[in-house]
Amino acid sequence: MMARRLWLLALALLLLWLGGFGWFLRAVQEDAADNSATDAIVVLTGGAERVETGFRLLEEGLAPRLFISGVHPDARLADLARGAGADPARLAGRVELGHAAASTRGNAVEIAAWARTRDITTIRLVTAGYHMPRARSELRRTMPELRVVPHSVTPPRLRDEGAFWRPRNWGLLLSEYCKFLGAEAGLSRFLGGRRT
Asked: Residue 2: is it exposed, middle or buried by C-beta count within 10 angstroms (0-12/13-18/19+)?
């Protein structure tokens, strides 16, 4: 009788986990549809096309300033601009770089400190779609009063033809889902690790 209860409990937990993963897969595919202006655009480094997207959104006027969190300590705005094919002179005075973060939780702490000193109450967050749920979870925990408008970037490896069938991509999504669950449970402060 006890073994049957444990088996049913394990089955229920597995179904709950799978249902959550289904929700996660839908959430990571959401497109950025909200074009309302925000106080700032915030980019989390660590993936393809994020910085370029942030520069483009700044040029489109969706916010007056841009903050890039988790930049390598040796990188400067001119380096990032050149890499993105942007003119550094057009970005000067509107873009700030954060060099302290080395994880998603660190990004949240860095963003919160930056936003509080500048009275920022709304941001447009630019990161990969698969990373967005965890990034938003960490920001909610660090600065609950901050309104976050998500702007997901789909990396090339997930939009290429046949991407759905690649085991490496499923490994990335499953790993990120587990990290998201850890962030929701408040475990990321104990786990450390690099951002994705």
From this structure: exposed
